[in-house]
Amino acid sequence: MSTDNDTNSSDGSHCSTPDSDGEVAEEIAIISFERKLDTAEEIVEGIGDRYDTIDIIEYHGDVFEEYWGEYDCFVGLMASGIAMRKTAHLLDDKWDDPAICVVDEELTWAIPITGGHHGANQVADDLATMGAVPAMTTASEAADKQGVEKQAKALDAHVVNGDSTVATNLAVLDDELGPVERLDGPKAVLVGDDVTVLKRNGEEGVVLGTGSVSGATEDQFVSAWEQALESTEYDLGDVEFVATATRKEDEEGLLAAAEALDLGVVAFEKETLEEFEGPSPSKSKELIGWPGISEASAIAGGRNHELEAEKTRYDDAVTVAVGR
Questions:
Q1: Beta strand 53-58 with 27-32: parallel, antiparallel or unpaired?
Q2: What is the tens place of the pLDDT at every residue in 225-280?
Q3: Measured between alpha carbons, how far is residue 135 from residues 113, 204, 269, 306 in Å?
Q4: How far is CA 195 from CA 191, 192, 274, in A?
Q5: What are the pLDDT digits (tens) for 147-177?
Q6: CA atoms within 13 Å, Cβ hemisphere of 146
Q7: Quick one: residue 144, left, alpha or beta (phi over 0 = left, psi -120 to 50 = alpha)?
């Protein structure tokens, strides 16, 4: 029993955004007891369009062993203990093993048990749209902080040296990591074991530098981004991520709009934005000492640190500049 879905980056799916090692949960298998197959079908209907493939496989004693390596993530519609006992002997390497997320029949809890940063957290987040509570236990998520894997995902990048994330995520927890540094090549780089290297996945695109008044709505952000791109040769499919300032990183309308468009959000510290101040005058600098957020974040986030379009204010609520 299976459902195959062809998706692309404009369909709102998470799977278009690479996870920490460059692999994402694109091919999902729901492992379900016969009595729970109706719930499995509900899951397919609810989140199936977010993945390339989502199959339903009826449980039997060797089901995980039989399909191990064929899917990016298993969704176990069963008790977590069953999934743990049936997969423990198969686990070898967190960068290669499929992720596992378990969910109960009532869709109350979605619990990543292995591969949280490699697809299981992603699937749990998607199940949350169906009412399940994602029970994240990875340290950075539990502390409500953006680990390096999540930063890579927001930047449409992947981690080149996975073992380094132990040290760098500890630095995240201690608020010692700082912003992601950028190096433009050609250049040779020598790094230590505690330096995480991120490599972009896609072709060169643009960055939407964004500022706003407090309380701007999701629709206002989406409309502003679309209108800003109309003055360029780019469209939403060319956007790598949304850039803003840390003082705006919890703006609900911005986060909702980015999620709706499947875009990552990168928030720059004040010191970083001061290095990339834009050409247009800004009330923000005059009133609170911050450089203009939209232009500075667009320049800081762009690969070439250049503006494609200077800032424009939309609906007296959202300011957008386009960086490249």
A1: parallel
A2: 999 999 899 999 899 899 999 888 889 999 999 989 988 888 888 888 888 988 88
A3: 9, 35, 29, 41
A4: 6, 6, 25
A5: 777 777 777 777 878 778 778 878 887 778 8
A6: 18
A7: left
